[in-house]
Fold:
Amino acid sequence: MKIRLKLIWLILINVLYCSTILADNQSNQNDDDSNYDYKPSNNGCSQIYDPYEKINRKIFVFNSFIDHLLLRPITIGYKKITNDYTKARVSMFLSNINTPVTIVNYALQIKYDQTMKSVWRFLINSTFGIGGLFDVATKMGLTITTQTFGSTLARYGVGPGPYLVIPFLGGTNARDVTDSVFTNNYFNPIMYVVSRNFEYIVTGMEIIDGRLALLPFTDYVERSSIDPYIALRSASQQNRESVLFYPDNFQCPKSKDIIK
Structure:
């Protein structure tokens, strides 16, 4: 109970922090954008603000070492011993079991149609799709965009904030930092009724499945990029911002408006 109370406080602190960014942004919309790596796209905030680059790079090197020592070899082993059919079933199962997170966040965004579509998708794939192993819902036209708490904050006008590299977890930003740390689990009702061991297994499967999806790209970056840190930072930010929905009047926060 005490742990969950602390997590709730962390969520509230994150919301307050991001709300401060939004408030400062709205009062300084005409300031200079020169501290960003590139200009915004039509999808929202595509600028990268990296005031902690020195420490981020050090953590990036540490994460790369751990990745090459443990995660990458395990992922390559998983790729070799399983066929494409098995890997597809694992990915579908993980996608389905995390659909309630999308349902909760669509509800928080007050998007009734998407919420109900997500509910039906989860129910259909969990039953006719045999626990989510098969994607029956997509064939019925029930497609959704995965949502997290960071997606919900973006929907209410919160920009990404500073770029951060978290030990063991990789690159993210101030708005999305709680997603991989705890909100993806604590916003999922399923995790409250399953055993802790099952939760650990799912988490492990998600890590390996996610690393497998990134394997071709990261290998390419390491072979061809002069600065892998910059390449991965830009790719992760652009990929994230491209799937977010911002309010029509949203303006990207300027660098000096973001709390350091």
The chain has one domain: 2-257. The two ends are 32 Å apart (CA to CA). Residues 2-257 form one domain. The longest strand covers residues 163-166.
